[in-house]
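Whiteboard transcription, Tuesday session. T.W. wrote the C-alpha coordinates on the left side:
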Protein backbone atom coordinates (compact mmCIF):
# COMPACT_ATOMS: atom_id res chain seq x y z
CA UNK A 1 0.00 0.00 0.00
CA UNK A 2 2.87 2.40 0.85
CA UNK A 3 4.51 1.94 -2.57
CA UNK A 4 1.20 2.68 -4.27
CA UNK A 5 0.47 5.82 -2.27
CA UNK A 6 3.96 7.33 -2.32
CA UNK A 7 5.69 6.32 -5.50
CA UNK A 8 3.93 4.01 -7.95
CA UNK A 9 0.62 5.24 -9.34
CA UNK A 10 0.77 2.49 -11.96
CA UNK A 11 -0.21 -0.15 -9.38
CA UNK A 12 -3.16 1.75 -7.87
CA UNK A 13 -5.90 -0.27 -9.54
CA UNK A 14 -4.25 -3.64 -8.87
CA UNK A 15 -3.73 -2.87 -5.18
CA UNK A 16 -7.27 -1.53 -4.88
CA UNK A 17 -8.81 -4.69 -6.35
CA UNK A 18 -6.57 -7.08 -4.39
CA UNK A 19 -7.23 -5.30 -1.10
CA UNK A 20 -10.96 -6.08 -1.37
CA UNK A 21 -10.18 -9.74 -0.68
CA UNK A 22 -7.88 -9.36 2.32
CA UNK A 23 -10.44 -10.80 4.74
CA UNK A 24 -10.88 -14.04 2.80
CA UNK A 25 -8.21 -14.46 0.08
CA UNK A 26 -8.11 -17.45 -2.24
CA UNK A 27 -5.22 -18.99 -4.19
CA UNK A 28 -6.13 -16.77 -7.15
CA UNK A 29 -5.72 -13.63 -5.03
CA UNK A 30 -2.41 -14.85 -3.65
CA UNK A 31 -1.19 -15.41 -7.23
CA UNK A 32 -2.26 -11.84 -8.03
CA UNK A 33 -0.26 -10.51 -5.08
CA UNK A 34 2.82 -12.49 -6.17
CA UNK A 35 2.47 -11.15 -9.73
CA UNK A 36 2.18 -7.59 -8.40
CA UNK A 37 5.27 -7.99 -6.18
CA UNK A 38 7.26 -9.35 -9.14
CA UNK A 39 6.16 -6.32 -11.16
CA UNK A 40 7.23 -3.91 -8.39
CA UNK A 41 10.60 -5.65 -8.06
CA UNK A 42 11.14 -5.44 -11.81
CA UNK A 43 10.27 -1.74 -11.98
CA UNK A 44 12.46 -0.48 -9.11
CA UNK A 45 14.71 1.46 -11.48
CA UNK A 46 11.82 3.33 -13.07
CA UNK A 47 11.30 6.85 -11.74
CA UNK A 48 9.15 9.93 -12.18
CA UNK A 49 10.63 13.00 -13.85
CA UNK A 50 9.16 16.50 -13.55
CA UNK A 51 9.83 19.53 -15.71
CA UNK A 52 9.09 23.16 -14.80
CA UNK A 53 7.92 26.30 -16.55
CA UNK A 54 7.05 29.72 -15.08
CA UNK A 55 4.93 30.59 -18.13
CA UNK A 56 2.28 27.97 -17.58
CA UNK A 57 1.42 24.61 -16.19
CA UNK A 58 -0.28 21.92 -18.18
CA UNK A 59 -2.32 19.76 -15.84
CA UNK A 60 -3.41 16.64 -17.69
CA UNK A 61 -5.81 14.02 -16.40
CA UNK A 62 -6.88 10.62 -17.63
CA UNK A 63 -10.16 9.32 -16.20
CA UNK A 64 -11.74 5.90 -16.58
CA UNK A 65 -14.13 3.64 -14.74
CA UNK A 66 -14.95 -0.01 -14.34
CA UNK A 67 -18.75 -0.14 -14.56
CA UNK A 68 -20.24 -2.49 -11.92
CA UNK A 69 -16.85 -4.15 -11.49
CA UNK A 70 -17.48 -5.00 -7.84
CA UNK A 71 -19.25 -8.34 -8.22
CA UNK A 72 -20.55 -8.37 -4.64
CA UNK A 73 -22.29 -4.99 -4.52
CA UNK A 74 -22.26 -4.06 -8.25
CA UNK A 75 -20.58 -0.72 -7.58
CA UNK A 76 -18.36 0.92 -10.18
CA UNK A 77 -14.72 1.92 -9.71
CA UNK A 78 -13.54 5.44 -10.50
CA UNK A 79 -9.91 5.73 -11.62
CA UNK A 80 -7.96 8.87 -12.50
CA UNK A 81 -4.44 10.21 -12.66
CA UNK A 82 -3.31 13.84 -12.91
CA UNK A 83 0.07 14.90 -14.24
CA UNK A 84 1.76 18.26 -13.70
CA UNK A 85 4.90 19.22 -15.62
CA UNK A 86 4.94 15.69 -17.04
CA UNK A 87 4.91 13.76 -13.75
CA UNK A 88 2.03 12.22 -11.78
CA UNK A 89 0.88 14.31 -8.81
CA UNK A 90 -2.53 12.88 -7.94
CA UNK A 91 -4.20 9.54 -8.57
CA UNK A 92 -7.17 7.57 -7.31
CA UNK A 93 -8.83 4.20 -7.77
CA UNK A 94 -11.90 3.94 -5.57
CA UNK A 95 -15.28 2.24 -5.49
CA UNK A 96 -18.11 4.69 -6.03
CA UNK A 97 -20.29 5.25 -2.97
CA UNK A 98 -23.57 4.45 -4.77
CA UNK A 99 -24.71 1.82 -7.24
CA UNK A 100 -25.00 3.51 -10.63
CA UNK A 101 -27.99 2.37 -12.67
CA UNK A 102 -26.33 3.05 -16.02
CA UNK A 103 -22.88 3.54 -17.48
CA UNK A 104 -23.58 7.22 -18.13
CA UNK A 105 -24.47 7.75 -14.45
CA UNK A 106 -21.22 6.06 -13.42
CA UNK A 107 -19.32 8.21 -15.94
CA UNK A 108 -20.86 11.40 -14.52
CA UNK A 109 -19.84 10.37 -11.02
CA UNK A 110 -16.27 9.67 -12.18
CA UNK A 111 -16.13 12.95 -14.13
CA UNK A 112 -17.38 14.88 -11.08
CA UNK A 113 -14.68 13.38 -8.86
CA UNK A 114 -12.02 14.25 -11.45
CA UNK A 115 -13.32 17.82 -11.83
CA UNK A 116 -13.19 18.39 -8.06
CA UNK A 117 -9.56 17.26 -8.04
CA UNK A 118 -8.78 19.37 -11.14
CA UNK A 119 -10.13 22.54 -9.54
CA UNK A 120 -8.12 21.88 -6.38
CA UNK A 121 -4.92 21.27 -8.37
CA UNK A 122 -5.49 24.39 -10.45
CA UNK A 123 -5.78 26.43 -7.24
CA UNK A 124 -2.59 24.85 -5.90
CA UNK A 125 -0.69 25.72 -9.08
CA UNK A 126 -1.87 29.34 -8.83
CA UNK A 127 -0.67 29.50 -5.20
CA UNK A 128 2.75 28.29 -6.38
CA UNK A 129 2.91 31.36 -8.63
CA UNK A 130 2.60 29.58 -11.96
CA UNK A 131 0.51 31.61 -14.39
CA UNK A 132 -1.84 30.37 -17.10
CA UNK A 133 -2.52 26.88 -15.87
CA UNK A 134 -4.66 24.84 -18.24
CA UNK A 135 -6.37 21.63 -17.19
CA UNK A 136 -7.03 18.96 -19.80
CA UNK A 137 -9.20 16.01 -18.83
CA UNK A 138 -9.37 13.00 -21.10
CA UNK A 139 -12.31 10.79 -20.26
CA UNK A 140 -12.61 7.92 -22.71
CA UNK A 141 -14.19 9.63 -25.74
CA UNK A 142 -15.00 12.89 -23.93
CA UNK A 143 -12.53 15.71 -23.66
CA UNK A 144 -12.71 18.73 -21.34
CA UNK A 145 -10.46 21.77 -21.25
CA UNK A 146 -10.45 24.29 -18.37
CA UNK A 147 -8.68 27.58 -19.00
CA UNK A 148 -7.08 29.60 -16.22
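and on the right, the sequence the group agreed on:
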Amino acid sequence: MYAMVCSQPDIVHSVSVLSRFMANPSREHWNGVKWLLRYVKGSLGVGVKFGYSKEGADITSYVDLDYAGDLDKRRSTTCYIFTLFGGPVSWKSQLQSIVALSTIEAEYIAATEAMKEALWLQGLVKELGVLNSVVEIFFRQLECNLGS
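Someone added at the bottom: The longest helix spans residues 103-127.
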